[in-house]
Structure formats: structure tokens, C-alpha cells
Amino acid sequence: MALTPVLLLACAEKTFNSLLARDPAAPGRLRRLAGKRLLLRLERPSLALLVTFHTQGLGLLHAPQAEETDADAVVEADCEALGSLLAGESLEQLMFSGRLSLRGQTHLLEATRELLMDLDLDWEAALAEWFGDVPAHSLAEGLRRFARFGLRSQHELRADLSEYVFEEARLLPGQAQREVLRDHLTELEVATDRLEARLARLQRKLDARRREPMT
Amino acid sequence: MTKRTTHFGYQEVPVEEKAARVADVFHSVASRYDLMNDLMSLGIHRLWKRLTLERAGVRRGQSVLDIAGGTGDLTLKFSRLVGPSGRVVLADINASMLNVGRDKLLDHGVGGNVEYVQANAECLPFADNTFDCITIAFGLRNVTDKDAALASMARVLKPGGRLLVLEFSKPPHQLLSKVYDEYSFRLLPKMGELVANDADSYRYLAESIRMHPDQETLKGMMERAGLERVEYTNLTGGIVALHRGIKL
């Protein structure tokens, strides 16, 4: 069991380094980061991870006893905040909302995010290693054409389906109809509130009359 | 007068012959050592070494000695962890293994903070209290006088320094032990013959593993060498154990 977390970290490291090796912009970014280290402390699940950078990639090491002085930057966050950061949410916003704390060289975290999230993978070069330049280019071109066809077909299918459901078969109301209905419902809600207020006032008058002594 | 003997696998050989015989084994397998390790352990030896690295707790600027460092797997990682202000010494008794390790590290762009020393673990050529951390991975069982080697390592460790011994051990589970025996004595020499064209060296590997002290015995040896807080972790069902002791 001692090896399971080690295996997961090794897989993550291998995956990151394989992806970085396919990105033409990565060597320049890694050169700037080489020798730096980032200590990432996650709260839930509790995990201390030391990320080291070198010219060929990065290293991930479980380091529960690592000291802050051993890292150039220390990040403390929970998984959700880290996910938001990787999804592109502003670092300042996460820090000001108290979901992420950062000490040391703050630009190191931005540079790490840029390194990992701005990957522009050269798949064609990877295919060329297996099949050779010309077949790889044909295969990549075919895949690109197929992807474009898939995207176009998806848009067309969505448009056709929407036209059938809203316009031809009228199975569901369209956008305009929904808005008219919402306006009517709002009007009805306001009128009901008014009626309720009038009834309450009449009730109060009736109760007051009942309490007055008979003259 | 009878000559003092020691074990070389299952054979008894004169003490002064063992080092030369072990050297022959490693001269023979040096060029394909990494490939054979991957094949024999199905790549798991990389995880065992990663765990050693984690438990070493090495920091920036520290000095590390990687004894029997062979082809430099641990040295490569340590050199990145200690950074340019730190120092890693890759030591091995065998020149062929050291050459393979040096070439591999240079190919990985590692140079500035790594030194290479051909040395016998029993009499390390370093001053007392020199290193913050010492590792010996899959090397102790090949040493003729293990007690002398452990004492030598304890001597060159700084107070507060850690010694980590990663070595094959004894699986406590009977069934796993039987499967492991079958694998070691039948399959391993065949793989050695196919890949490295050397069945005898890999037969020696299996035999030397069986002759190596078990987890508790090695723990006692480390304590007798002057290390404290000695603990061990069984890995892969006890096929391998990672011992760690601290010099206080």
C-alpha cells in the first residue's frame, strides 16, 4: 500500500513530462523555471507536494516534512481552489476570497500555471516518430478534417433539432414564447399580491367593526 | 590454519575473493543493468527508489552520498533536489557501473554538483561527519563485511543525518515466498541469459538475495553500527525493505 501514492505521483510526473516534451514552447519556459521549487500544501485531501523544475520537465515529490525555507513559493489551498486556479480563475481573486494562500515568489505559481495550462501539443511530430513525416502529415490532416466535420455536424444537428422541436412539432415553447409567458406570470404575481393586500385590509376593517360596541 | 570464508551466493569463498567475484558479475551486467532491472521488477524498482527519495527528506544545499549508486538513478534525482549549492557523491566499487552512471547523468545534463568516487563501502574515503544523507540501494548484500560497511557509513554521516538502505528482503507471507522463489531461481536466470547473455550473474543475484539478512536482523545490525530510531518498511509484500536510521 505504501507504493500506491508513489505510483500515482510517478504517473502524474510522467504524464506532465511527456506532454511538456511535445510542446515547442515548453523548453523556453522550463529554462526560466529550472532550479525553482514550489511547495503545494493541499488541505483536503491533506497532501504536501514539492514541485521541482529542471530543463527537461518537472519532478513531483511527496514531502510532508518539507520546510517553507526549502521552497521558493508555498501555496496552501484546497482541491476546489486549485481546480479553479487551473481552470483559469484569477489568482488575485482566489487570494482575496481567502481560498488560496501564497507566500514567497508569487510569479512562480503564475509561471507554473502558464507552463501546464498553455500547452500547445505538437501531435503531428509525435505521430511522425511512429509513422514517418509524410504518413503522419496525411493522418494528422485526416484527423483534423474529421474533427472539423464532427464540429460542423454537431452544430447542424443542434440547429435542425431545435427547429423541429420549437417550430415544426411545437413540442416545447421557443425563447420568445417563454419570455412572453414569464411576463404574464410576473403580472399575475403582482396582481395576486395586490389582491392579497386588499383582502387583508378588508379583513382588518371587518374585525374592527365587530369589536366596536353596538350603539 | 583455515582460511576465513564468506558466502558468494550459495558458495563459500575466501573473504578476499568475494569483492573480485562480485566485481566480475557487475562488469558483466553493467551495460544492460537498467534494462534488466526494468524487466526483472516489471519497472517497480523505480517506485521503490522514489519512496527512498521521499523518505530521505533531502533539502537544498545538503550533501548526499549514494553508495553502490550504479547507474545513477537516485543520484540524478538527488542532484536536482540539493540544487547547485548542494553536493551529491555517486560512489561504487565497480568502475564499469560508475562509467555507465557517469555517462547517463551527463546525458541528462547533470554535472556541476555531482562527484564520482570509486570506493569500497567498508572503508569510505571521506572525513567523519561529512554527509546529511546516505543511501545504498541494492548494494549492501554484495558487500563482504556488512557490519564494517554500516559502521563506515555511520562514521561519515553528520549528526542528525539519515542512512537509508533499500535492499531485497524476506517476504513474510509463505505463499508469496514460494512464488518468489520459483520466479527467482527458474525465470530470472533465463531472463538473464536471454537479455544479458549471462545466466550465472542472475543466478548469483537470486542466491545473494536469499543469503542477505532479513528485516529484523538488518535493523539490529544498523543499531549496532550506531544508528538510532531505526525503522523499516516492507515493500511489495516484503520482497524489498527500506530501512532508515538516524545518527544522533
Automatic annotation (TrEMBL), chain B:
Residues annotated for S-adenosyl-L-methionine binding in this entry: T71, D92, N120, A121
Transmembrane residue ranges: none
Listed EC numbers: 2.1.1.163, 2.1.1.201
PROSITE patterns per record: SAM_MT_UBIE, UBIE_1, UBIE_2
One Gene Ontology biological process: methylation
Pathway given in the UniProt record: Cofactor biosynthesis; ubiquinone biosynthesis; Quinol/quinone metabolism; menaquinone biosynthesis; menaquinol from 1,4-dihydroxy-2-naphthoate: step 2/2
Catalysed conversion reaction: a 2-methoxy-6-(all-trans-polyprenyl)benzene-1,4-diol + S-adenosyl-L-methionine = a 5-methoxy-2-methyl-3-(all-trans-polyprenyl)benzene-1,4-diol + S-adenosyl-L-homocysteine + H(+); a 2-demethylmenaquinol + S-adenosyl-L-methionine = a menaquinol + S-adenosyl-L-homocysteine + H(+)
EC main group: transferase
Keywords attached to this entry: Menaquinone biosynthesis, Methyltransferase, S-adenosyl-L-methionine, Transferase, Ubiquinone biosynthesis
Family classification: Belongs to the class I-like SAM-binding methyltransferase superfamily. MenG/UbiE family.
Physiological role: Methyltransferase required for the conversion of demethylmenaquinol (DMKH2) to menaquinol (MKH2) and the conversion of 2-polyprenyl-6-methoxy-1,4-benzoquinol (DDMQH2) to 2-polyprenyl-3-methyl-6-methoxy-1,4-benzoquinol (DMQH2).
Name this protein carries in UniProt: Ubiquinone/menaquinone biosynthesis C-methyltransferase UbiE
